[in-house]
Predict the 3D structure of the following.
Amino acid sequence: MNPCRCGYLGDPARACARAPICSQQYLAKISGPMLDRFDLMIEVPEVPIHQMLEKTQQENSATIRDRIIAAQDFAAKRRLDGLKRLNADLSPDEIDQAVGLDDEALALLHQAGEKQALSA
């Protein structure tokens, strides 16, 4: 979603004339529980037209496929059974075995969860 009604909040080239009120009013229309459900928020900067029209060499599908296969092979080596399965196909117990968090890592995770008030 846009950061404000006009969409220009934070844009150095076209500053929002009503900032920060515009953004506050815009966000107030969306319920808090709805906003809480967004796990990841990223800013997507405007892409200049000249960049979109440039003829640059793009990766082909075969190159991308090779990278995916390499990542899957790496994940299979990490698993105790060595089977080549996607992480999404693992059970919670298999994930625990593959990740193998030690006590120090678990303590750090608990501390971060408490400090940041993370939810499921």
About this structure: Residues 63 and 114 are 42 Å apart (CA to CA).
